[in-house]
Amino acid sequence: MSTVLDINVTPDDIRRGIPRDALACPIGLAVRRTIGGEGDCVVLVDNESVFLLGSSSSLVAALPISAVEFTRKFDDDNKVYPFDFTIELTEELT
User: Fold this and answer.
1) Cα R_g (the chain), whole angstroms
2) Which of 1, 15, 69, 73 has the smallest count of CB within 10 Å of its CB?
3) Could you tell me the pTM of the whole model?
4) Which residue has the higher pLDDT, 37 or 7?
5) Three-class DSSP category at 88
6) What phi, psi does 11 have (nearest 5°)?
């Protein structure tokens, strides 16, 4: 089973984000906001994927090219802008 999420990275996500921090990047902050607050889920973003790590399950989604490019620019301290994208979360096989 998969879940599709529409993600909106806002100016606030960008302002609060920390370059090269997989737990505090703007995309991760936007995903966290979209799924509804703090909860018991850790949102982790790498160069190509987003992971939702919960106590009983883990979900993963590939990032679209626009999000991959955003992450590279942000991590290299380049100017980035708010944008929208869609991800499809699926259960991560362990």
Assistant:
1) 12
2) 1
3) 0.91
4) 7
5) strand
6) -55, -35
